[in-house]
Amino acid sequence: MTKMSLPAVSLVTKDTLEGFKTSDDVVVVGFFADAEANKTFDAVANVFRESFIFGATNDDALATAEGVSMPAIVMYKNYDDAKTIYTGSAFTAEELGEFVRRESVPLVGEVGPSTFSGYMQSGLPLAYIFVDNDEHKTKFSEILLPFARKFRGKMNIATIDAVKFGQHANNVNLEQQWPAFVIQEIESNLKYVYDQATELTAEGLEEFLESYHAGSLSPKIKSQEAPEVQDGPVVIVTANTYDELVLDEDKDVLIEFYATWCGHCKRLAPIYEELGEIFWSDEALKSKITVAKVDTPENDVPDEIRGFPTIKLYPAGDKSNPIEYEGDRTLESLNDFIRENGKYHVDGLAAWKAKKEKIEIEDPIVEEHDEL
């Protein structure tokens, strides 16, 4: 609220700069004589104003005193390098925004409720070490610091409190044994796990990180056992069968990403089963449409899942462009979603109703009555 009550960019002078530089954990100051560059800086400040404090000056002597020539941008922090100068040649909103986003992250930060979303939104791989005491936190932070500098902009490195957030280890394919180290690729959701049967050492971490950046590590995939037979009506997908079943180019595949503990998923289950039955019970429809589901916490999937249930349609012949379902969780709406967005534009519900009515006409139910 305090940051939002301030102007997006505050005017700083030689009398106020020193105090301004230490007014928050991260302070960004622009030194501009050019009005257009200042407008770009203002736009970037508006994007990040909830997180950081921005200031600007057109005082050339002040820029010289700070060791820069206009135009210039300097980030002041109360951690890591106290002063970081923007070295890019392009003063575009995209470049300046990337500078603020990248340099504001601590070299070795800490994953927690206030920082987790920022790490996820960065798009960079996150390497983090689970520690259960301050001694280990300090020790491994010092070990990892040179690698954090080396891979700045390519990877984020952080510690995480295993006492408070140890359960999160399950999400990144670790056993709850500390200390433990993992690299999580945010976009692909792949996890590279340091062997927990091996002692975590400085030399081991160096080899592990260098191997990762050389592309010679293999991810650890969490996957349930795939059923030997898919007996329908909703096809069970696991991490190991994902490509085969979901990325089948010949079929429109509707898949639900669910969690067993999710109440919304439980309420959807009977409707989703009925939808699956419509396509599963008709051989012609079955050859074109698959209705599937995957227990997401138990299987590593390449999709970005923000909540449960998430439902997506992967059209035949266009698997790189899945369409997320945002309609009502009703049989009719789900059927219409498949019809409107699938390659085959199949109206399964209409076909199912027509088939059902035909059976009732051809095989009328004859009731027997006892004669008095």
What characteristics describe this protein?
3 domains; 5-stranded mixed sheet; 14 helices; Glutaredoxin; 372 residues; Thioredoxin-like_sf; single chain; alpha/beta; endoplasmic reticulum
State which percent range the strand residues make up: 15-25%
Q: Quaternary arrangement of the chains shown?
A: single chain
Strand order in the largest sheet: 1-3-2-4-5
Helix fraction bin: 25-40%
Give the helix/strand class.
Answer: alpha/beta
Q: Return the CATH topology of the largest domain.
A: Glutaredoxin
CATH superfamily of the largest domain: Glutaredoxin
Q: What's the helix-strand series?
A: HEHEHEHEEHEHEHEHEEHEHEHHEEEHH
Family: Belongs to the protein disulfide isomerase family.
Organism: Myxozyma melibiosi
InterPro entries: Thioredoxin-like_sf (IPR036249), Thioredoxin_CS (IPR017937), Thioredoxin_domain (IPR013766)
Subcellular location: Endoplasmic reticulum lumen
Provide a concise account of the structure shown.
With 372 residues, this protein is of the alpha/beta class. It contains 14 helices and 15 strands.
Written description of the protein model:
This protein has 372 residues and is α/β, with parallel strands linked by helices. It has 3 domains: 2-103, 3-Layer(aba) Sandwich (Glutaredoxin); 108-214, Glutaredoxin, CATH 3.40.30; 235-359, Glutaredoxin (3-Layer(aba) Sandwich). It is built from 14 helices and 15 strands. The strands form 3 sheets. A 5-stranded mixed beta sheet has the order 1-3-2-4-5. A 5-stranded mixed beta sheet has the order 6-8-7-9-10. A hairpin with an 8-residue loop joins strand 14 (310-314) and strand 15 (323-324). The N and C termini lie far apart (85 Å).
